[in-house]
Design brief:
heterodimer; A: mainly alpha; B: 423 residues; alpha/beta; Rossmann fold; Coagulation Factor XIII, Chain A, domain 1; 2 domains; 6-stranded mixed beta sheet; 19 strands
Chain lengths: 278, 423
């Protein structure tokens, strides 16, 4: 729609392309920080259990999974104690799930700003993911505590944790962009999200190892972007625990990339009418 | 400075309005829409052009006033220039940092403190953190909230909220400033402060596009005016002319002359029957829709008196634009010796309207008649025989500008200094 140059000159015309102006995003980094800060502070200010909540959620999910999958379903986790195995899946899953839930409603929540001020709209769903990132860091601390309790020693692979985190963020960003853009136009999309997340948790290897999915289903299964993410986290945090194999991993990563690229395109396309439909 | 900082060429913006019973704002509606396609009846789309081929240039340091009735496209123009919504066709070039103020308080978070919101809001409006830090004290002083900096904004009174929001926005320092009607908030003292600040900004050489309904502010601040009507722009190098054109366009439908034969249901009573009511100038000619305050206007009332009535009081009542009854006057006001003698048959009464006493605005003059202490004949509230006029312009010669005065009256009192010391 418009391109600024170093001398601050803007040409405004009817939009054509779907390209992402990365330089502009960089220029607006302070606003991104301010919005992320606002989201995080707003969440933790005035709620005594604000921080506690970030601890309670992963723990409760892990315990539930343990009861359902391990005790009742008798799912195996190889050499790893099931508690850690499950938690290693829960941590990235919650990051993904919170990102998407937060992002899908983010544009509508920020409707007033979108109608009144210019800034690259991509910042909004991205900033919404930041609260999920903060919760993620807290849950990593919980994981560290669990490791101590179970007396489980981490391996050198821990060094790749940032890379796995990056993959998780990219996997969340694609669907986040899709859903936030769609929700701006079709308000009921936001209500689909909890439902999608519930299903997602079962078709992702959160409570069981992805390697358990055998035969012809394995290819279909690997189309799930979270397969690669959770397998990475398992590999980094608790050692190789029966992942889906290199080919499946590659397919899953390819889906992450496809969702991200298509998400950016859809977002940029629908962005043109945000201020008018929101 | 003859640089053009804003160049707009045939900017147009179209909105599509759907008519018909088919909602489209949910995914479920879209899906059921596909299924229902063979059965769908009716449903049309209408094109609404909020902006049509709007072309203009603004030089560096100019203040352009954008005026027009509601729905004429003013806010849409600002939104397009602020990149909030894209134009359907046409283009605009802006050279320089752009700050837009379409509403105050954008992005304030209720749980964060005043201090935190200053940084947040300033950031949203496009200021860098170090700029905000440098201007922090000035912003706080302008908003007068030193004591409440660390209180969450949700505890602020609405006045404090608005002052803070405006203070932040007022300290934006872009080269081009787009302002939309934000001066309509706050009390009178605050409005004065805001306008003073805006004048300051304009004087320092910034280019300003100012959308407003406050004609006094527009007259005072703007170098040129652009009138938008139904999306189309007309330009006025003389702001006063632009303001007049705007007011004329919005003038009330009733004219300056009312004739009984033109009325569907002519008012009539057993004692009097009004025939004509008109507002005329000193030559007896019916005046135009807008009269400046220094001109003299007479009311002429023609009526038929059907029988002698010593207790007849007949005259006019005057209402302001929001329907407030301001005053009435009858031919029997004043000492009895001065009362005009009425005869059975047609009479024409004339009286001068105190235009110089009234403030700017639209007024309605309505025939009113009664039998004194007996009964009403024609009540002005029924508004059967009425004319309207807009009083605008021609205000006093004082170089001191101020926004439109409060109250329906705006007489110019003659102030003098009395000799000697007051005791």
């Amino acid at each position: 729609m418009s391109q600024p140059n170093a001398r601050h000159e803007y040409v405004i015309r009817s939009p054509r392309g779907l390209d992402v102006n990365f330089r502009e995003l960089w220029e607006y980094r302070e606003l991104f920080g301010a919005l992320a800060m606002r989201a995080v502070l707003g969440r933790y200010r005035q709620t005594i259990i604000g921080v506690l909540w970030a601890v309670v959620r992963p723990v409760v999910t892990m315990v539930t999974l343990t009861i359902v999958f391990n005790r009742v379903g008798k799912m195996a986790s190889g050499d790893t104690p099931y508690l850690l195995f499950a938690l290693a899946g829960v941590v990235p899953w919650l990051l993904f799930s919170h990102c998407i839930t937060g992002a899908s409603a983010s544009l509508v929540t920020s409707a007033e700003m979108i109608k009144k001020v210019y800034f690259p709209r991509l910042i909004i769903p991205a900033a919404a993911c930041m609260t999920a990132l903060v919760d993620f860091l807290v849950s990593l601390a919980v994981f560290a505590a669990m490791m101590l309790i179970v007396a489980w020693a981490p391996t050198w692979r821990l060094v790749l944790l940032p890379a796995a985190t990056l993959l998780a963020l990219l996997a969340a960003l694609g669907p986040a962009l899709w859903l936030s853009a769609l929700n701006a136009r079709y308000r009921d999309v936001m209500h689909l999200v909890p439902f999608l997340m519930t299903i997602g948790m079962f078709i992702s290897p959160v409570g069981y190892a992805s390697g358990q999915v055998a035969g012809p289903w394995r290819w279909l299964y690997s189309l799930n972007p979270m397969v690669s993410v959770i397998d990475s986290f398992r590999w980094v945090l608790v050692g190789d625990a029966g992942g889906v194999g290199a080919a499946g991993f590659g397919l899953s990563v390819a889906v992450v990339a496809a969702l991200l690229v298509s998400g950016l395109a859809v977002f940029r396309y629908m962005e043109r009418t945000f201020a008018d439909v929101i | 400075m003859n640089r053009r900082v804003i160049e707009a060429r045939e900017l147009s913006k179209r909105y599509r309005i759907r008519h018909g019973r088919f909602r489209q704002d949910g995914l479920r509606h879209v899906m059921t829409g596909w299924l229902a396609r063979p059965f769908r009846r009716g449903g049309t789309t209408e094109d609404l052009w909020a902006l049509r081929d709007v072309t203009f240039d603004v030089q560096a340091g100019e203040v352009l006033g954008v005026i027009g009735p509601n729905g004429s496209g003013k806010t849409t123009l600002l939104k397009v220039l602020s990149r909030i919504t894209p134009p359907t066709s046409g283009q605009a070039k802006l050279i320089g940092r752009v700050g837009s103020l379409l509403e105050v308080g954008t992005g304030f978070h209720p749980d964060l403190t005043g201090r935190e919101n200053i940084y947040l809001n300033g950031s949203i409006l496009g200021m860098r953190r170090r700029e905000i830090a440098a201007l922090f004290d000035e912003i706080v002083a302008f908003a007068e909230i030193e004591r409440f900096l660390d209180t969450p904004v949700k505890r602020y009174s609405s006045g404090m909220y608005v002052r803070l929001a405006f203070a932040i926005a007022a300290h934006l320092q872009p080269e081009i400033l787009l302002i939309d009607e934000v001066l309509a908030v706050g009390d009178v003292a605050f409005q004065k402060k805001c306008l003073g600040k805006m004048r300051d900004v304009a004087r320092r050489g910034r280019t300003v596009l100012f959308v407003s309904h406050n004609m006094a502010a527009v007259r005072s601040l703007c170098d040129r005016a652009m009138l938008l009507e139904a999306g189309r722009a007309s330009h006025y190098d003389d702001v006063e002319q632009g303001v007049r054109a705007y007011l004329a366009a919005g003038a009330p439908r009733t004219g300056r002359q009312w004739l009984t034969e033109q009325t569907a249901c002519p008012p009539d009573t057993d004692v009097v029957r009004p025939v004509r009511l008109a507002l005329v100038d000193s030559a007896g000619k019916v005046i135009g829709p807008i009269v400046p305050r220094h001109e003299r206007v007479w009311v002429e009332l023609d009526f038929e008196l059907k029988r002698t009535a010593d207790d007849l009081t007949i005259g006019v009542a005057v209402y302001d634009m929001i329907g407030t009854y301001l005053f009435h006057s009858y031919q029997t006001d004043g000492p009895e010796s001065g009362w005009p003698r009425l005869q059975v048959g047609l009479n024409r009464l004339s009286a001068e309207l105190p235009v110089a006493l009234l403030n700017e605005g639209d007024y309605r003059v309505v025939v009113q008649a009664a039998l004194h202490k007996n009964r009403w004949l024609l009540r002005a509230d029924d508004a059967e025989a009425a004319v309207s006029v807009t009083i605008a312009g021609g205000r006093d010669d004082s170089p001191l500008w101020e926004p439109a005065r409060r109250g329906p009256l705006a007489p110019v009192l003659q102030w003098q200094r009395m000799a000697g010391e007051p005791k």
